[in-house]
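Incident log entry.

Two folding requests arrived from the same account within the same minute. Monitoring flagged them as a possible duplicate submission, but the sequences differ. Recording both here for audit purposes.

Request one:
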Amino acid sequence: MAGELGHFALILALMFALCGATLPHYGIHRADNRLMGLSSQMAYGQFLMVAFAFVALIYGYITSDFSILNVAANSHTAKPLLYKIAGAWGNHEGSLVLWVLILTLFAAAVAWRGKELPLRFRSRVLAVQSSLAVGFLLFILLTSNPFLRLDPSPIEGTGLNPLLQDPGLAFHPPLLYIGYVGLSIAFSFAVAALIEGEVTPLWARWVRPWTLTAWIFLTAGIVLGSWWAYYELGWGGWWFWDPVENASFMPWLIATALLHSAVVVEKRDALKSWTILLSIVAFSFSLLGTFLARSGVLTSVHAFASDPSRGMFILAFLALVIGGSLALFAWRAPKLAPSGLFGLVSRESALVLNNILLATFAAVVLVGTLYPLVLEATGGGQITVGPPFFEYAGTVLMSPLIVALGFGPLMAWKRGRIGRATQILLPALIVAGVVMGAVVWEYTSGYVMTALGLGLAFWLISAVLLEIAVRLQLFKNPGAAFRRAKALPRAMWGMSFAHLGVAVMLLGITVSEAWTLEKLQVMAIGDKVTVGDFQYEFRGIEPIAGPNYTAVRGSFRVTEAGNFIADLSPEDRVYTNPQMNTTEAAIHPLLRGDLYVVIGEAAGGGRWSVRLYYKPLISGLWLGAIFMVIGGMISLSDRRQRIGAPKGRRTVARNTKAATVEEGAGA
């Protein structure tokens, strides 16, 4: 019964979405406030119906209702409860319901938090959002119904892919989807602005919190997936440059550019058309990721197997949404004339450079991802565009971006002075030069790229710290630093945290990629292997039984100069439903690096194949990502980012004081 109710709820959600996509436009045409006001009610109705359907689907998984095809194909009675619930979105149909749930949740949030928006514009935004919901709900109901019944129903289900039975993968899709779908709000704001023919600084102020929210979740989702690949797949890496990974990275790059571009619109009333285009492209990349994962055009550990009819539906929807929005942009963008001007040397110009580099890198990743697919589809054979291509492009394009991140915050709005910024950043330049020179001197050859990466990382760390010191006037008046720190807007602190996170992440990537030590060994019990300064002793094997798997667990003792460091217990698991072999790496993090052990198959004679790693400073990657997320959250907590935040006298005075501090630091 729950399945039928869930299916009916999706049909009702489609009805609400159809009304929400049409009635507000008609109300605007008739200047009927009542019809325009219905957009909010339709948004609430969509969310409630989809939420009911999603709960009905999860209920089917929790109760192991194998009369529902989706549950029978992706669950099993022996699975732990967490993975029963996660199985609801660990498949094509269920993940689409989660996608639409988040889509309608954001629409309801705009209806609730956007009451300060003009009624006409808010109804336009919600109408566009409802149109997107119509497309996805039709896709679910026509090609991907999660509530199809089996008759007779099987006694047992086939289970969830064992690679997905992991806490990281239980939470990775929801975080990633919030990021993906959150960009739909920026898209809806952009399309509504194009229809209205007006983009103002106030528009940028409205769109930034939604984009920042999506960016935070997208960052967290990507990093959680990277962490899962690092410890679950057992190969010691954290990024494949897999097409579906790239599909999440491209909207992140464009969303980052959009956040910076929107600042220029808000501050200088410039870059209007470019910011609108970024809003469209960011969500278009999210839809492209949906197409890649569900169309069957590629094979990936992330991709869902699906039939061609689904791929054709998504492709048609993709063409309609992207093609229609770009056509509207081509028609209406010339009317969005900028009114703000700025000099070649200014903070605005630094943000423009940031946008150009990020957008170019996203285009390069797009070409590298799609070119093999297009070549194969046109009969040109099969090729692979691997990590060297993407890493070289990233080095060429991101190096000047890292340099610009140091200068940009110290430049004044409208017209800055490069000489003053260079003078302030001279210590950072010296630190970067010393680090690069030390690496090249010590290792002579083969470490040029490592020296560049370390130099850029230390440059940005030093530049961020110097920028904070200048804003606090730490060298001029240390006694007043705390008072000035309290007066600085939270958005400024958030920016500094995010930039510092980029530097720490770059440091972790560079050091771990350059100096990782790895040994592939066949070891018997009692054997000892030295990796760097650490000695790994193989102490034995024991069989274990999990809730839905069996495994052999190895035991390794790690010492350094005879001193005990850690006991590590990697596992080689065999799942029965479905049958699959997986590895569970044992990782012991240290401040200076990770100790990493993977146990493989038996080699006969009581010996086992093992992989032993020492990965220096790899934790910097995860720590940097955490800094970026924290920076985004700090910025989002700034009162200036909240639409409709009350502005009493004390608030106005505080904001005026903070603005004075900000302008004084950048002058």
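Request two (distinct sequence, not a duplicate):
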Amino acid sequence: MSTTVAQLIAKVRTVYSLPQTFHRLQEVVQNPDSSMSDIGEVLMADQALSARILQLANSSFYGFPSRIETISHAVTMIGAEQMVALVQGTCVASIFSRVPRELVNMELFWRHSIACGVTARLVAARRREPNTERFFLLGLLHDIGRLVIFQHLPEQAAAAVELAGREQRLLFQTENTILGFDHATVGYDLLRTWKLPARLCEPIKMHHSYTGSSLYPIETAILHTADVIVSAMRCGSSGERYVPPLHAPHWDLAGLGAEMIPPLEKEINRQLEEVIKTILA
């Protein structure tokens, strides 16, 4: 009997839960009476998370001209909404474990995901999009559904990987063949259980779509383009062997030209190692 996406998410709902610090931070940020110092107090209660945030604030990811010494200073410089996105990202990597190594190398998985986040953020910044950290979060989480499949449906996942290699097809396509759904749909439903906003969930569901109409076209276009760029750079891997085709309308909407790719790759490589050390610390 085959498993549906709803059955899979119901099974893992209690396995994957974000830490209390994240939920408390959301409550504070959504409270109109909260101040920057209130946000700082929530973060400072989690020493490990505070250390990561300070490390990231002082990295080339931001490139602030002077050193950030305190969490309150980091919150002021980065902003409340942006801080929530960073906390979401730094919390996710720690809740996945026991993924079969024969299916995916977790170091390569996170390298690919973090590189997608860095790339999406850089592309969004070129477009002068607000709150570019949400684009980093999109990239970081875009393949999270694949970890759920690898961990909880390992036999079917192995069959999809084998079929992709044998027929030289993209893995999301063989996921649909074997399972009847793909990792993008699983990731979408998992993020919804975490009550993350639709602006984050929906582009992740659509990042392999070449025909569907996205409710958030800019976010979807930037995420899709970042995924293709990073795959072409061979920067890590989430299990995919081949580079997904670039959808021309997404490329146009992302606002990139061919001449922008070499300096973009240089900047990705410049930021990547520092961000990896921070997120996976």
